[in-house]
Amino acid sequence: MRTAAWMTLKSRVSATALASAMAAAALAGTALLPVSAAHAQSAATARGLPDFTDLVDQVGPSVVNIRTLEKVSNNGADSSGMDEDMLEFFRRFGLPVPNVPRQRQPRGSQPEEEQPRGVGSGFVLTADGYVMTNAHVVEGADEVIVTLTDKREFKAKIVGSDKRTDVAVVKIDAKNLPAVKIGDVSKLRVGEWVMAIGSPFGLDNSVTAGIVSAKQRDTGDYLPFIQTDVAINPGNSGGPLINMRGEVVGINSQIYSRSGGFMGISFAIPIDEAARVSDQLRASGKVTRGRIGVQIGPVTKEVAESIGLGKPEGALVSAIEPDSPAAKAGVEAGDVITKFDGKAIEKVSDLPRMVGNTKPGTKSTLTVLRRGKLKDLNLVIAEVPADEAGKVKTSSGGGKSSQGALENKPLGLTLGELTAAQKKELAVKGGVRVMSAVDAAARAGLREGDVILQLANAEVGDLKSFEAAWAKADKSKPVNVLVRRGDWAQYVLIRPAK
What we know:
The protein is α+β, with helices and mostly antiparallel strands. It is 23% helix and 33% strand. It contains 12 helices and 28 strands. The strands form 5 sheets. Strands 22, 23, 24, 25, 26, 27 and 28 form a 7-stranded antiparallel β-sheet that branches. A 6-stranded antiparallel beta barrel has the order 1-2-3-6-5-4. The model is unreliable at 1-40, 42-46, 76-80, 100-104 and 387-403 (pLDDT under 50).
């Protein structure tokens, strides 16, 4: 009886509370949904979330596990002098292996045998057995083992690898393999759902998902990366990044980490860039890249405004290699390359990518900003040497100046003429040498021995032309000065003293 009375009281209280809540909701202009309606709304929301099951069924069979082996002495220690258990600890958690001095092996030690070196991922590129992965997955391996999802194992041949893009292609002797579909990276959008399949910590065919966090992420490497928050760990390297259409849009390659484990930031090589590399690797086993022979740097906002560029874009030419395509075309230190074959250079890293992807021997056009005016220069793309030799040699820029000096107190400069020998050494037609830099010039970073080639967008050939340029300069604003130091040139802003 007491229980029935309590139940009745509870029902009345609940009814009263519900009526009050509904009345309050009505006054507030809102409505309370019945439980069944709320469940329906929740179900509708749930149906809006991505379902990766079909994608896993579709792409999963194309993803492979890659194990690499290396030959080590069979004495319980690696050639680095560290025992295998300790090495496995570093490999498992993605930590760099310490550089331990190699141990001398005693005479009569046991012969070498193949030991596990690392685990990575890859995916079937073609039905006849070409597999794409990361270069760092197969680098230094004496043997590569590819395992398919049906547990078949194959010894793979390394067709070629390219460290610069971290792309490698291996070949297994198999036919009728399930090849992946290649997606269009240009249609990939920030915020779009993506999925990764790989072998983190050796756990085959692990599936993780997330969204695209950013595109064209410049990490200082040759390629612009796709940034995601997909969980990537050691062993995922070389595996595919897949869009919701089941197409591969990238190769999982790097993570940002302070611990060696996943921290929410992953990077993938765009598949269009990787495909260009793989085509060359399959054709010749190596990658051929174009070069024009310039050293470049970024254009800051202040420099862009002072030279009439408007916004910080393009690539500032700091140095030119002798007898290079750029030198033959007439490119000068201080030029800002704004376009390559009509395509805008939005940031400094765009130029090496565009030039590198151009076939050697191709006739191309550079658009440069020089002393406030745009100019087109024609050149023929050269090939990057295998050893990347031919780097710019630093010149001393020394020697005595000729007689006569010019003092400019507002800029804090004492200048002298260049001798003929100095001009020949620096390969310049003219300029003036800094004999001393104090006050404003010193604060801007100038020092004795620097050579000034331009002042306020005007060419400086000698002291007289320097004076003429200074007379026309707007002294109420910072003055841009193109400075040569050795073989390097850079714009510097000097704020004149009043």
